[in-house]
Amino acid sequence: MAWDYIIVGGGSAGCVLANRLSADPGRRVLLLEAGGWDWSPVVRVPAGEVLAIMSPRYNWRYMAEPDPSRGGRADMWPAGRVLGGGSSINGMMYVRGNAGDYDHWARLGNEGWDYESVLPYFRRAERNENGGDAFRGGEGPLWVSNSRAPHPLTQVFIDAGVEVGIPANPDTNGAVQEGIGPVQATQRKGWRHSTARAYLASAARRRNLTVRTGAIATRLLFDGDRASGVAYVQGGRERREYCRGEVVLSAGAIASPKLLMLSGIGDGDALDALGIECRVDRPAVGGNLQEHPGVIMTMHVNVPTFNVEKTPLRALHHALAFLLAGHGPGTSSIGHAAAFVRIAEDADYPDIQISYSPITYDFGPNGLKLYERPAIGAAVNVCRPESRGRLSLRSADPMIAPRIEHALLGSAKDMRLMVEGCRLLRRIFEAPAFAAYRIDERSPGPAVQDDAGWEAYIRREAFLMYHPVGTCRMGSDPDAVVDPQLRVRGLKGIRVADASIMPTLPSANTNAPTIMIGEKAADMLLS
């Protein structure tokens, strides 16, 4: 018995597809997810985000090769291993990006991906707490909410940004992105609202939708040049499922290209060297890997911040506030405010994002360690980095993690933007609005002043923003992995719909754009 659609990966886009494709009871849909359901408080409670990221139960925790641009440091690259994917373990910031990002995609030859064309899909997904308008959605399945963990210094940060010349912007997802303002989160009444909650929880009751968890896809099956099904391992046994319609890869920027390569779609020479029969010689599979480079600056302040709210009595107070009312630090997303600014003189739209938080911590050898003193922090990241990396197979064994190579600070232009973005953040911290609260700059500290000092600090401390994209690049050129309809070039019956298809990074956290891709892909499949 064949399925109409098989979706590989129940992540940010995969859950959207499972819901939309199964809305017609006449279509049989199978969703395969390597992880399990998202019932754990570690996933559902926003404050558990760091624990979820650190857990191999919910995160694949891929290890990259040493990065030559940062002294050989090797990073963990996250990928959700749970229904909801990245939307179940991310920092929950709802940021769409700039209209210019999508107009740029269209100029690269991706007809139908300009901002005017994708805006309806952003709106269709969203149920905004403040209601809908020409830019925001008010009736979609995904709840987007204002912060339920207000902290007085969040508004001070916004005021300080205005004092140094950044325009106030109450909605950076609205008509204009540029400016500084509050950030909303994918939460419902204080709880994380992943795509598993928003799209899948209700749809899973449909008789024509089957969700199989603990199912690790190992390769695609073919009948000639048409994808006919998926082989996967579940409970230690290899299984096969067949499809009379289309197979959709929504396994993310790491696993989707990996599965294509395991199935013989990739660089022919590299596949031959591993003993994998090459079906389509497409060297671009796994290439074009992009990530946002980020670095944090912190400042000690003289009012309590969330990192010091940890005495037993305060912890009990916050736990009750969360459980009874959905308020307090337990609901905190990773960012409470953000600034989108232009640094380069020739930038048409913002090239730096600064994300502010009233909680500060270090990652040590034993995990998360909260600052002992009250402090605030903000991350500076380049919106559209030039640096590119590559993902490749280590082995023909599907259980072996792929090789990830990326120089996060490999571009001199990216480094220049990071330095100037950090200088701007220091100006924000030193603005009059903070005068009554500022004690001192904790990191990098006043000793860092010249370009060499800033570059050394950034190379030592820079990190991934956990926004990998681009490894199954969409384009109209013959080297692209998928066409603008998301069909894998050279084959039939298979599409890719996740962050891997993005030709370039949007000027934003990538979860909202990935959900948009799921919505748009569903329309393509059903048209």
TrEMBL record:
Positions contributing to FAD binding: 82
Pfam assignment, any one: GMC_oxred_C
Molecular function per GO: flavin adenine dinucleotide binding; oxidoreductase activity, acting on CH-OH group of donors
Listed name of the protein: GMC family oxidoreductase N-terminal domain-containing protein
Protein family per UniProt: Belongs to the GMC oxidoreductase family.
Entry keyword annotation includes Cytoplasm: no
InterPro entries membership: FAD/NAD-bd_sf (IPR036188), GMC_OxRdtase (IPR012132), GMC_OxRdtase_N (IPR000172), GMC_OxRtase_C (IPR007867)
Keywords (A to Z) from UniProt: FAD, Flavoprotein
Domain Glucose-methanol-choline oxidoreductase N-terminal: 80-103, 252-266
Keyword Flavoprotein: yes
Organism lineage string: Bacteria, Pseudomonadati, Pseudomonadota, Alphaproteobacteria, Sphingomonadales
Reported cofactor(s): FAD
